[in-house]
Amino acid sequence: MNNDRRKVAFIFSVNGGALLSFVGDGAQQVNPSPNTATQPVNEVVFSIGIEGVPDNRFQAAGTCKYGNAFAGVTQITCTASTDKGDFSARFTTSGKPPRPGF
């Protein structure tokens, strides 16, 4: 998800409606090959999804690695270390092309 011109966030749903986001500067993204990308992560955001309860934001050092979702089944893997501990999430796509508009 590109939520401003340079910021990139990978958002994973967690049990009970909580969200875990890995955030980084899109300008720092590298492409080791034509169908793969590595996105540096400098922030982890954890939201429990209750109105009025602020998100927990942590400075982080990590990466999200992913393949071309238009090319078939691929995996998104994010890992990051913070002063509150380590966070990780992984998602495997269905192999169907992403829907436009999201």
Overall description:
The chain has 102 residues and is mainly beta. The chain has one domain (7-92). Helices cover 0% and strands 59% of the residues. It has no helices and seven strands. It has strands spanning 7-14, 18-25, 30-33, 36-47, 56-67, 75-82, 85-92. Strands 1, 2, 3, 4, 5, 6 and 7 form a seven-stranded antiparallel β-sheet that branches. Strand 6 (75-82) and strand 7 (85-92) form a beta hairpin. The protein is globular, with a radius of gyration of 14 Å. It starts with 6 loop residues before the first strand and ends in a 10-residue tail after the last strand.
Fold topology:
Blueprint lengths: L6 E8 L3 E8 L4 E4 L2 E12 L8 E12 L7 E8 L2 E8 L10
Antiparallel strand pairs: 1-2, 2-4, 3-4, 4-5, 5-6, 6-7
How would you briefly describe this protein structure?
The chain is 0% helix and 59% strand.
Portion in beta strands: over 45%
Q: How many helices does DSSP assign?
A: 0
Largest sheet: 7 strands, antiparallel
Number of domains: 1
Tell me the series of helices and strands, N- to C-terminal. Answer: EEEEEEE
Task: Tell me the overall shape.
Answer: globular
Distance between the termini: 8 Å
The stretches of 5 or more residues where confidence is low (pLDDT under 50) are none
Report Rg: 14 Å
Number of strands: 7
Proportion in helices: under 10%
- Look at the helices and sheets and give the structural class: mainly beta
